[in-house]
Every structure is written in structure tokens, then in C-alpha cells.
């Protein structure tokens, strides 16, 4: 009996692990049972080996208990997953239905607006249309004139700023050149005075009257 139980639990564990490795998502129940059986079997074997129960009996008891507990935990998780999947499916269905309804309402609204526009067009006279076009032309001409005036004012402001900037630059250059020329002229005058100051004074002859 113990051997059959151990074989069954081992097969369950292998099936759960095989599902994980093959890429097919196994149920949480099978996975939990397999994992619980493996962990419970190892723990039971250790306990059985240290007691009078025996390793085989401990392994079987531990594996059975682990499988039951793991299976219960897996079943709870499976139930939660199914509930979440159902909720997501309902949410997707609701959003799809809502999007479809909004699209239909938008299409209906566009159709109604177009029909109203057609009905209103029949009521418009040629005189009314000509008057509206004339008003549009007048408004466009006024807008163009105002834009031109604004552009001209901006252009004059830019020209004034540019002239002021150039004037300041020119005056600064004039002041620099005047200072430079005044300095050079002063050095030249000083250099011209130095030879005159260094030349000896001419000798004067004193003529005395004879007796």
C-alpha cells in the first residue's frame, strides 16, 4: 500500500514538473500537490528515519500529507485565477460593447448633423450667400491691413533699436580713436621739446669801452 501511494505521489510530482518544463501551464492544484508531496515526503522520511515509524512509512505519510495540503492550496489558487480571468473577460467584453455603442452613436450623430445641414442649405438664398461672402472678404481685408500695420510697427522698432546700437558703437569707437590720437600727439610734442631743451645757450661777447 505504501509503495502504491509513493508511486502515485511521485507520478503526480513528475507530471507537475513536466508541465512546467514543457511550457504548458499546469493547474495550481497539480503543481501544489506535486510540490507538497515532494516536500512532505522528504520531511516524512527524515522523521521516519529518526523514529520507530521507519523511513518508508514516514516518506509515504509525509508525501500524502504534503500532497493533500499542496493540492488544497493549489485548488484555492486555481479558483482565484479562474475568478480573475472571468473578471478580466467580463471587463473586456464590457469595454468592447461600450466602444461599439459609442461608435454607433457617433455615426448616428454625424448622419443627423449632415441631414440638418442639408435641410438648412435648402433654406439659404443666393442673396444671403453673396452677403456672407462679401462680409468674409471685408473681414479678410481688414485682418490683412491690421497685420501689415503690426508688421510695419515692428519693423520700425527693430530699425530704431539697430540705429541706436550702431550709434553707441560708433561713438565708442570715436572716443577710443580721439583718446589714441591725443595720446600720440602728446608723445610727439614731448619728443619735439626734448632736443630744444637740451641745446646749449649761445655765448655772448661783452664789449668794453677803451680808455
Give a written overview of the molecule.
The protein is mainly α and 211 residues long. It folds into 2 domains: 2-96, no CATH class; 125-190. It contains 4 helices and no strands. The radius of gyration is 55 Å and the shape is flat. Mean pLDDT is 74; it is low at 15-24.
Short characterization:
By secondary structure, this protein is an all-alpha fold.
Sum up the structure in keywords.
211 residues; mainly alpha; 2 domains; 4 helices; flat
SSE inventory with pairings:
Elements: H1 2-21, H2 28-49, H3 55-122, H4 126-198
Helix pairs in contact: 1-2, 1-3, 2-3
Strand content: under 5%
Rg value: 55 Å
Low-confidence stretches: 15-24
Mean pLDDT: 74
Shape: flat
The helix/strand class is mainly alpha
Count of DSSP strands: 0
Amino acid at each position: 500500500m505504501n509503495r502504491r501511494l509513493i508511486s502515485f505521489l511521485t507520478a503526480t510530482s513528475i507530471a507537475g514538473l513536466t508541465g512546467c518544463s514543457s511550457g504548458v501551464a499546469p493547474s495550481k492544484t497539480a503543481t501544489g500537490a506535486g510540490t507538497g508531496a515532494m516536500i512532505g515526503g522528504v520531511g516524512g522520511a527524515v522523521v521516519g528515519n529518526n523514529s520507530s515509524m521507519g523511513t518508508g512509512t514516514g516518506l509515504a505519510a509525509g508525501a500524502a500529507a504534503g500532497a493533500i495540503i499542496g493540492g488544497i492550496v493549489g485548488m484555492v489558487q486555481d479558483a482565484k485565477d479562474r475568478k480573475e480571468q472571468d473578471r478580466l473577460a467580463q471587463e473586456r467584453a464590457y469595454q468592447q460593447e461600450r466602444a461599439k455603442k459609442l461608435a454607433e452613436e457617433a455615426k448616428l450623430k454625424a448622419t443627423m448633423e449632415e441631414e440638418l445641414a442639408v435641410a438648412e442649405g435648402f433654406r439659404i438664398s443666393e442673396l444671403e450667400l453673396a452677403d456672407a461672402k462679401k462680409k468674409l472678404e471685408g473681414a479678410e481685408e481688414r485682418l490683412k491691413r491690421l497685420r501689415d500695420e503690426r508688421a510695419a510697427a515692428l519693423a520700425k522698432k527693430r530699425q530704431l533699436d539697430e540705429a541706436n546700437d550702431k550709434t553707441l558703437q560708433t561713438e565708442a569707437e570715436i572716443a577710443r580713436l580721439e583718446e589714441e590720437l591725443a595720446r600720440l600727439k602728446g608723445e610727439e610734442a614731448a619728443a619735439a621739446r626734448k632736443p630744444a631743451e637740451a641745446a646749449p645757450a649761445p655765448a655772448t661777447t661783452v664789449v668794453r669801452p677803451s680808455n
